[in-house]
Amino acid sequence: GHSEQTLKATFKVLPIEDLDNDPELDASANQVKSLQQILVKLDDLVNDAGEPVEYNDLLRDQLIGVPYVRIALMQHYIHAMTKVRLGN
Question: Are 66 and 28 in contact (CB under 8 A)?
Fold first, then answer.
């Protein structure tokens, strides 16, 4: 089974050419590097006891290391950027 969870992410908008996409790295490694550049903060995070968890770079990297979290964050960023472009 699984449980659906949500979090609120705040991103920094960067032009695609400013994202650090190294052709020598695989897609996962490039996603990690990109998210480290664009992810400003995550809100609504709690620990197992339900207590709020403060966002920091270590927590960011731990969450990015989880494949389904990394993929969801990248999809959300791409979707948000596409939505912005369509609205302009």
Answer: no
